[in-house]
Amino acid sequence: MPRSSDAVLSQVLTVAQMRAAEEDLIAAGTSVDALMQAAGRGAGEWVRRIAGGGSVTVLCGPGNNGGDGWVIAEYLREHGNSVQVVQAREPATEAARNAKALYGGAVVSADSVTTRDVFVDCLFGSGLTRALPDDLYDMLCGLAGRHRHRIAIDVPSGIDSDSGVALNADLPHWTLTVALGAWKHAHFAMPACAAMGATRLVDIGVTAVPGAARVLHRPRIPAPAADAHKYRRGMLGLVAGEMPGAGLLSATAALRAGAGYLKMAAKLAPAGVPPELVVTTDVDAMLADARVSALLVGPGLGRSDEAARLLARTLHAGRPTVIDADALVLLRPAMLTGAPCVLTPHEGETAALERAFGLSGQGLRRERAGALAEATRAVVVLKGPDTVIAGPGGEMVVSPRASSWLSVAGTGDVLAGTIASRLATNGQALRAAEEGLWLHGEAARLCGPAFTAGELAHAVQAALKECLE
Ligand SMILES: NC(=O)C1=CN([C@@H]2O[C@H](COP(=O)(O)OP(=O)(O)OC[C@H]3O[C@@H](n4cnc5c(N)ncnc54)[C@H](O)[C@@H]3O)[C@@H](O)[C@H]2O)[C@@H](O)CC1
Ligand SMILES: [K+]
User: Fold this and answer.
1) What's the order of all strands across the beta sheet hosting 321-323?
2) Whose C-alpha in 137, 152, 313, 448 is 20 to 30 A from the C-alpha of 170?
3) 181 Cβ below 6 A of ligand 1
4) What is the predicted ipTM?
5) How far is the CA of 154 from the centre of ligand 1 (A)?
6) What is the pLDDT of residues 138-189, one digit of tens each?
7) Annotated binding-site ranges for AMP
8) So where are the chain's domains?
9) pTM for the full model?
């Protein structure tokens, strides 16, 4: 893989993977000191952009994160900023000691620091394994509170890098978090990601790590071919249940996410069906229609025995299918045929699926999504403020934080419709899940505050426009 490709810079690493990647670079001839210089100077440039000509305080801890801090401080000093270092602990690594020796500026006590412009947290990074002791916690929070802007280097102190769990209560909120070398899971996991402010990545030459997770990015979606035909563009069949109105939101989004033809099978046609949506009462005919390239089942399905039978019939058709909402609660292992499927559970539906598929439900969200994907052989989109996508082959995609205004009724129906539309178009479950999730997040961003699910569904079209090749 070419080193500079987007794929390398979008990988998300565990602490163990990051250490292995650094060891590869060192084995290839780079020194730890050179990596620290590259990381610290790259981060220093971000600090300079925030600080302008302003004053900066850098808090340095004992490990290599502290070492980065000494490099950042020297970089700022060289560039004319008023900079001072608070040394929380003596450097305990050789690289950190070397970085400190190269710093020619002021070192002050935490108590002496008055209000300044920018605080830089280099107390601990990815090496933190336990809660901050009281003296360091007080120092971190006290200093953070006395600065106008707060920048965390690599991982904010007090955060577990692999999980995003806060090891101390009431940690500071950051203006900016600068990841070094590669993204870490904490940058995308709650609660840590909510307090990180903007996030930026400094490239230090890390290469591709096999099996690494990656960040969801804007997909490239082709416009229909010159000779496109409505069926070949993707025909989506929506299986409506006891409350067919819920499926209308999915349909509204699906009509704007690229599929060429939408048909809804419902016992009773709901009110307010847009003229573009074809409604049939003959679900078996729709399921047997060879032109249907994907199905969506779940929104408004209900949880009755009849709904369970309808779900089983739908899955028996063996088409690529998005399974959402009530269908996730009714799903049983015997219903799956091996056709490409996308499951879109939130937390409660995930717990129901774990029970149905004999899983423990233990572990981090991404681990639970991975276990569910393996057990179902489906792509799992585990929804929440930190949505993750897991594929049956061990693929893992984490999503940057989306608008918190998405926490409104009906947005799940919109997501399912968007993914289903992409599945009808490209037939690939993982790709459809990624494209649909990105379009959904971008549609929310475009809507701004306090939108309705219907407005979100309409905005999917504007999001799609940004993806066209
Ligand atoms: N290794 C490398 O090649 C590079 C490392 N980099 C930096 O190095 C960081 C990781 O360095 P380290 O592994 O030294 O980790 P940290 O700098 O996070 O510090 C870990 C050290 O603190 C101790 N420690 C952990 N939790 C503690 C606690 N609660 N109270 C007191 N002491 C505690 C550990 O025993 C360890 O000695 C990254 O976050 C990044 O900032 C970058 O400079 C890029 C290059
Ligand atoms: K830090």
Assistant:
1) 183-184, 11-13, 213-215, 396-398, 388-390, 379-382, 341-343, 321-323, 294-297, 235-239, 261-265, 278-280
2) 448
3) yes
4) 0.94
5) 10
6) 999 999 999 999 999 999 999 999 999 999 999 999 999 999 999 999 999 9
7) 383-387, 412
8) 6-211, 235-465
9) 0.95
